[in-house]
Amino acid sequence: MNLKESAPEWFMELQDMITAGVESYESTKMVEKENKREGWHQRHRTIYGDTFEKAVIAYSCVSGEFKEEFAKEIPGTENNKEYWASGISVIFHPMNPHVPAMHMNTRYIITGKEWLGGGFDFTPCLPNDDYELWYHNKVKELCDNHDESYYEDFRKKCDEYFYLPHRNETRGIGGIFYEYFSPQEMSFEFHKDVGKGFFETAMKTFEMFHTKEYTDADKAAQQIKRGRYVEFNLLNDRGTRFGLKTGGDTEAILASLPPTADWR
Amino acid sequence: MNLKESAPEWFMELQDMITAGVESYESTKMVEKENKREGWHQRHRTIYGDTFEKAVIAYSCVSGEFKEEFAKEIPGTENNKEYWASGISVIFHPMNPHVPAMHMNTRYIITGKEWLGGGFDFTPCLPNDDYELWYHNKVKELCDNHDESYYEDFRKKCDEYFYLPHRNETRGIGGIFYEYFSPQEMSFEFHKDVGKGFFETAMKTFEMFHTKEYTDADKAAQQIKRGRYVEFNLLNDRGTRFGLKTGGDTEAILASLPPTADWR
């Protein structure tokens, strides 16, 4: 089986795995919206729950032709604007402010070139040095299993990307971010381990903190941090701005926004 | 007295007038932050009140030299990047969802050229055709007192500017918006009447609706509309993006954001 078949299968399997994890905490199922036609498959799952105040797990496998202005910014489109792309993206906005907001995305893209890209990053709302240390060790461990240069490189890229220049602060405590690795350079097994590693780390984090008592002030701090999340996504996130400019599905593109936010 | 002296005086007088209007509804005073040095005066007033869930009334009279990249987009900076600018901007995010969100700004800018620009626009969260009609009549009246072409021209510009392409909707029900009128072309008296007309219309609107009963669903609709307000300001508003890119004061630039917003 080639990667163009096995990659989407993996992304769907991972989507089911993470969905089961989310639903194990909730009394209702995630709501699925599916959009399927020739060369196009999107399966978005959303829940506004009691533990996951908002969770979105989105799988897609789509193909088509980039618009001219879009193509310019994508490698491998010089001679041909056709693309094929499959991936999964996950966003968790937890109810309990002791649980960080979490984001993960892994994708496999084919134009005239082909590459893997992805990563994940966590955004705590309350300071917790011990947790931060534990989290980065988890991330390092999953990277070191594949290549000892990955963790440092990808953590740096993550900090650079998830940065709010107008606030002079990072979105959260980072994680890893990588792009433009051909499947020859980077094993798809690493890509899978990023998904699995995210899932395990996320679930373990919920387990640790989702029942921890919190004050109104803690919730208020979460709301302010969510405001920063909105600012990053609308002002700085390349994918969001690009998607909206090129006429993508607004609801899907803005699915990562928190359920609520404050600027008080 | 020339306009460079009388304009800032008017903007300060208008700030005091509107401040008194806001405070007449609240049990506490607006909080003032003043920043004054040679060639630089900012006086921002903010309240998180019971009627005005958030109100900001910002006066400024500042001067300096535009940065290279900033200057390119400003008329009259070809030979000299110096500027002088004075103005007032107002944002009201009312507690009661029957009262529209309101925004007003009038400014006088001098570079190698000099011009007046400004306008105001209202954003109801709940449909109310009678109010919309009443509102636009008020706006038309104040325009017609000066020039019968103003209302149609400036209302159109307002609708074009306060538009969210990714939602295919306007921010609110519009109002007026104008820019680049020299004080020879446009009477400063019109500029003053925009400020006064806004103030009267805003106060009358609060009077009509601020005690009107509302449901949780009405408040939820307001929260969603506020989310759109955030989207416009961060994705589409030229001033916001420009200010942040050129290293302006983030808190001041983002002062127009609503106190809270939802994307549920």
Tell me about the largest β-sheet of chain A. Answer: 7 strands, antiparallel
The N- to C-terminal Cα distance of chain A equals 54 Å
Q: Could you say which structural class the secondary elements and strand pairing of chain A correspond to?
A: alpha+beta
Gross morphology of chain A is: globular
Strand content of chain A: 25-35%
Largest interface: A-B, 24 and 24 residues
Q: Could you walk me through the main structural features you see in this protein, from its secondary elements to its overall organization?
A:
Two copies of one chain form a homodimer. Chain A has 264 residues and is of the alpha+beta class. Chain A is 41% helix and 28% strand. The first copy, chain A, is built from eight helices and ten strands. Chain A has helices at residues 3-23, 68-71, 129-144, 150-161, 188-209, 216-236, 238-245, 250-253; strands at 31-37, 40-47, 54-65, 82-93, 101-110, 114-123, 163-164, 169-170, 174-181, 260-262. The mean pLDDT of chain A is 95. At the A-B interface, helix 6 and strand 10 of A face helix 6 and strand 10 of B. Strand 10 (260-262) of chain A pairs antiparallel with strand 10 of chain B.
